[in-house]
Design a protein that fits this description.
Blueprint lengths: L1 E2 L2 E4 L3 H12 L4 E4 L15 E2 L9 H25 L10 E5 L2 H18 L7 E4 H7 L9 E5 L3 E2 L2 H14 L3 E3 L4 E7 L2 E6 L2 E5 L2 E3 L5 H4 L10 E10 L13 E3 L5 E3 L15 H14 L8 E11 L6 E4 L6 E5 L7 H14 L15 H6 L1
GO molecular function, one term: oxidoreductase activity
Enzyme class: oxidoreductase
Protein name: FAD-dependent oxidoreductase
Length: 373
């Protein structure tokens, strides 16, 4: 049996960011990773570090997302210094493109409400008409009526982020075990053992960050993780010269020059392999209406992947009341929230308590819904 200060179950973006943060807090940490047989959202992520579409009706989520975006530059620099890997972070602001007056009006109302709910935090944004968008994005199409813009948004490479977090975790002294699906476990307050990968491991702290796997794991430790899969599809073009100076909600250009198109939302169960021509056609059509020059590029890759969605789409963070020391972390924004997970959530877990401001993220918010059902 190996003994550690903390065990993190889940080697994707969420689990690895938390594990890295725990190691930085001085905790000997074991990271258990089921491996590529898992429904790994991290490898299909679109790569946005996004603020302007987060937290309507949930100011606590808006604050959490903004805080994470603020943590990102320091995290990217840390990872580069520790590992030599560039996560390709760029935060020039971002645009949400509107292709009709109805879309523009709806977006303006959305952003105005988001700003009101921000309260003392404030929210800087602008609603831009076609001419102003064209100044920012010279290649936009005539179909673009306008856009919303905020200065907080950006994008990064999900794959380099995942690789960087893993490398930094190990460099800082963390222990990584791949191909280690949880087979058995025991729980007592402040005392947890997990059998995985042919061995048994023990720690006073346990973090469940296994994505869709948390649905089955959480109840073992007195926790609830009512998550479901939601499929998204992505199209990728051949490389071209830099033509997009900033990302949009559905189109971004990578450091390597590829253009990515995404943002589909499908309730397709655990099917992460199927791709739907009609959905791909719709994504490509909207991208070409927004940026006509995309029509001249060849599509070279396409994939689908599964998001981790809670009933209201917001993250779930909670410590077990029955078995203190066991935590769960669930979200569909592993790139955006990497800064918060490494630099804000991990210190809370290391201290053994989630502060009151984290209470709205508890799965207990779904109790009334479950009771009614």
């Amino acid at each position: 049996m190996s003994t550690h200060d903390a065990i993190v179950v889940g080697g994707g973006l969420v689990g690895t960011a938390i594990a890295y943060g725990l190691v930085k807090q001085g905790l000997s940490t074991l990271l258990l990773d089921e491996g590529d047989v898992a429904h790994r959202a991290s490898r299909g992520n679109f790569g946005l570090v996004w603020v302007q579409s987060k937290g309507l009706g949930a100011p606590h989520y808006q604050r959490w997302t903004r805080g994470s975006a603020e943590e990102w530059p320091a995290l990217a620099q840390e990872l580069a210094e520790r590992t030599g890997l560039d996560t390709a972070l760029h935060q020039p602001g971002g645009l949400h493109i509107c292709l009709s007056e109805e879309e523009f009006e709806a977006r303006a109302n959305y952003m105005a409400r988001l700003q009101r709910e921000a309260g003392n935090l404030g929210l800087e944004y602008r609603m831009l008409r076609h001419a102003e968008v064209k100044e920012m994005m010279p290649g936009i199409g005539k179909a673009v009526v306008g856009a919303s813009w905020t200065p907080y948004d950006g994008h990064a490479s999900p794959l380099y982020l995942l690789r960087g977090l893993h490398a930094a975790f190990r460099e800082a002294g963390g222990v990584y075990q791949p191909n280690a699906k949880v087979e058995d476990s025991t729980a007592a307050p402040g005392d947890f053992s997990v059998t995985a990968g042919g061995g048994t491991h023990r720690a006073p702290r346990l973090v469940l960050a296994a994505g869709l796997g948390n649905l089955e794991l959480a109840p073992r430790f007195g926790l609830s993780a009512p998550v479901r899969p939601q499929r998204g599809e992505v199209l990728v073009t051949e490389r071209t010269r830099t033509l997009l100076p900033m990302p949009t909600t559905t189109v971004r250009q990578t450091d390597e020059g590829s253009v990515m198109m995404g943002d589909s939302k499908e309730e397709a169960g655990y099917d992460s392999l199927t791709q739907t021509p009609g959905i791909m056609r719709g994504m490509a059509r909207r991208a070409v209406l927004s940026f006509p020059w995309i029509a001249e590029l060849n599509i070279v890759r396409a994939w689908s992947a599964l998001r981790i969605m809670s009933p209201d789409g917001l993250p779930i963070y909670e410590q077990s009341a029955r078995f203190p020391g066991a935590f769960t972390a669930n979200c569909h924004s592993g790139v955006t929230l990497a800064g918060a997970h490494a630099n804000r959530l991990a210190p809370m877990i290391a201290a053994g308590e989630l502060p009151p401001e984290m209470a709205p993220f508890s799965a207990r918010r779904f109790d009334d819904v479950r009771t009614a059902a």
